[in-house]
Amino acid sequence: MKLEEDKQEFFPQEIFMRRQIEKQMDPLKRQQENFLAKLKEERHLINKTILSDTFGKQSSQYDSWEIAEFYSGSAESPTEVRGNWMPVNLELSVNGLQLRSSILRSKSTITLQSLACELKISFRLVGDSTFWIVTRGSGVKDPDIAICKIKKEQDSQRVFLIFGANIGKQNNFKFLKKQEFPEISMKSDEVYNDFVDMKIKFIDNGDDRVFMKAILSKDKNIEMTCNKYIPCFKDTNIMLAGSGDSVLLKYISARQIERISEKPKERNECCNIF
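Below the sequence we write its predicted structure tokens.
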């Protein structure tokens, strides 16, 4: 027992990863056994648009979403949603919906039992700030949620992608994989005003994998993936949150797509994701 405690203290990431891999085994087997039967039920949903919203000053109602206060967590306190979910009734700017310390949850649900879900999102990170994408649940404390964080550093154009999940008895967020985006092509006003505009395509594949594609410049994109997630066997929501100085959500669309069967390599390339 003492040896196991020492391992957790000195090699926490190794312990978390091992537990997550063990936790994946039975759900993945169950999903594979039922895949064809479930796909027969859900095939009619392929390419179905779940939602599509542009957040700007001229926009009016956003009936696809509800919103709540969001606490991003610390070493002493876990990530959590505070207060009740409410209708989206916030003042917008031409730059989008301010998500700082807030979380959106889609009213419509998605299925990931045999299909995948594709999100196309554009947003702005200002100063020291983080944009959160959460799937496979209806709240940030759900045990099997998939979490993707895109974090910008203060007074810098360095941006990091962090894949994570809730691990342990308390379902606390732990990162599974962290990677810095290659150099992003910046305009002079972005550097001077300390912000980064980003466009991404996020695919929750519904099995053990999620994928991220991001536009870095006019001629360059990057693809990244993580395969440490737990399959989901119920309809769930899409959640988007912001923490730090300022996170402005400009656009999001979501649709059900066919699950990706091959194992793509992570690479930089020129392609159009929007």
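The chain has one domain: 2-269.
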